[in-house]
Amino acid sequence: MLLKWTRVVVRNRIPVVGIWVVVSLFGLAAGLNLNSHLTTSVTIPGSASQEADQLLAKHFNENTEGTFTVLMKFKKTTDAQVQIYKEKVVTASLVIPTSHIFQQRALAGVLFTSIGTSFSLIDAAQYTERFRQALDDQGLTDALVTGPPAIEHDVAPVLDSDLRWGQILAIVLALLLLLLVLGACLAMFVPLVFAAATISLALGIIYIMAHKMLMVLYIPNIIELIGLGLAIDYSLLIVHRFRRELMDDEVISVDEAIAKTMTTAGRTVILSGLSVSIGIATLLLVPVPFVHSLGAAGIVIPIVSVLAALTLQPSMLSILGRRGVTPYKFQGLMARKDLMSGMWARIGRFVIRRPISVLLAALAALALMASSVLWLHVTPSSLTAIPQNLESAQALKIVTERAGHGIITPNEIVIDLGAPHLARTPEVSRARLAFSDLIQKSHEVLLVSTDETATYIDPTEQYIRMFVVGRHDFGAAESQNLVHQIRENFIPRANFPGDAKIYLGGAPAQGVDLVSHLLKSFPWIVLLALGMAYIVLLRAFRSVFLPLKAILMDLTSIAVAYGALVLVFRFGMGSSILGTYRLDQIEAWVLVFLFPVLFGLSMDYEVFIVSRMREAKLHGATNNEAIVEGLAHTGGVVTAAAIILVGALGGLVNGHFAGLQEIGIGLAFGILIDATIIRGLLLPSTMVLLGRWNWWLPAGLARIVNVKASPLEDRETRP
Fold first, then answer.
1. All domains of the chain, ordered by start, with CATH?
2. pTM
3. First to last CA, the chain
4. FRET partner for 246 with CA separation of 20 to 30 A, picked from 75, 299, 457, 625?
5. What are the backbone angles phi and psi of residue 146, rounded to the nearest 5°?
6. Cα 207 to the chain's mean position, in Å?
7. pLDDT (tens digit, 9 = 90+) per residue, 606-660?
8. Contact residues for 252 (Cβ-Cβ < 8 A; gap 6+)
9. Could you please report the per-residue DSSP string of 505-517?
10. How many angstroms separate the Cα of 437 from the Cα of each of 394, 424, 445, 468, 702?
């Protein structure tokens, strides 16, 4: 079927290319408008913190994601002057429709004003610049605006700039590496054209999806840079195989060479794309919308890449023909005709001679690199891990220096008394003050704010609000422990009359709920990814043990990647060179996202190499001969593809946001180790030791998965 499809595509190559030009232009146009539909929202449906936030929104008119915060330093100012400042802030806030002041106080030399709106995060962010100008017009030139809408407004251009520089870096590195690998020929541009078309269409699809579901602001950076590397990987594999077909048979026609390429390398790309898609699809199990969005957007890239590999790639190769893949003067590193005498063939023969020594050395090196994962600690996020030159970040820095990190993101307790007109009764007032005193005893609590004004009691007098300010950043372990202490210790000991119910909201509680939901989902992500990958590879390799070995090696790559995060971000190894943050904790969503993505990408290289080994085995090679031939034909292209992908990920590492830096470091380090130590040494050594068991699939299991059985062969005599 794939052969027939390829021949149809080649016959219609001009219309196929024309269709790709049209859809790419659509995607490019849509991508330019994508940012206006993206958000930094981390709401967690069904969580305890969301229940509290809904009560705050309904009864106190508080909308956390639409709330601006104004901070202004003052020195030796009279109470009358502070009151004037307050009035000017209120006047300036009128430029924001539906704005209302729900908290305004002077603390530690800083005037702190919270301004609520009815807008969503994206809509509120559009008023940031207008509000800042209004403050200037009131003479409050020292006032700084922060809060979720202002952060969203300030962060978006920086992410866009990071993406542009990341793209330039990735494209330049990819072009140099493609020249080095393929030589000076027109075919070196094919992977870049392939990647541009793939990413453009993917962005167009994501633009449509963003109208129907929440999409996180990081998506263009992650999708474009990972997509660039993945698309180039697939295209390079096909170009390399096409050129080998022409080099090995000088009389073969271009169309026949394309057909043979697509039935081998093309089939491998389909299997690889399926593996990557399966891994990323598991993110849809996480009941957190912004992680959902990463999964939904992430699936688009491998699917579109496979679609391009089956249509655009053979069309471009057909147009280029033999001359297009023939190098001019500089031949490139893969122009060698006799690959069986090359470096990767020599590595294969070395491993065959000393499989146990190579296996033990590789495992020892990998265990050492992964050992730092024992010091891994997670956090929901951190306010300090955003660029400090942004106005919203400067405002956060001022208030945290004066009043502590917790003042920006307090815990908010909502007490539902069960009936109206109870909040100001003596019995409830005594219970409220006693509850406040109880919470204040915690060493982590800086202050508890409560009284009987409209800020703290709703108009029906059924609901009471209390602010609990901690001493640390909301993502710190101390803040997370305080949330657990309030929920598990203080709230059960509250002594409000009747059927009062108490809820805990605010950023710290939301962070705890986020980590909890992610950790609960993570085992299911792992099990589903492993199970589905095993079934797919079982059918593809027709082997019981090869898929199991592939999964164990992928898990090793992931462990090494997690260890690299600890080494770089917690212990600072190479951070001064790479320009990364120093953080005691890794963002939890990064670890959850890394697992399926790295699992899928690592499986790519396993599929590329083992598919070629199996091809050799089917042509009559012994197990050891198949290992050498597979490495000789794919080791170079896999290493080149990995280096190109690592180069693309450099755009994330060089960015300004901790979460994206963590993704870049984790993926880059994991992929680099996977394509070298794991696939170059660990894979062949285990296959040598497994011998004939590599290719065994009993008849009973073969019937279940609906493939041809692979009976156990006679023992081979080792050379």
1. 1-33+183-330 (1.20.1640.10), 48-152 (3.30.70.3090), 351-380+520-710 (1.20.1640.10), 391-512 (3.30.70)
2. 0.83
3. 40
4. 625
5. -135, -155
6. 18
7. 888 888 898 888 888 888 999 999 998 888 888 888 888 888 888 788 878 888 8
8. 245, 246, 260
9. EEHHHHHHHHHHH
10. 33, 18, 11, 11, 68
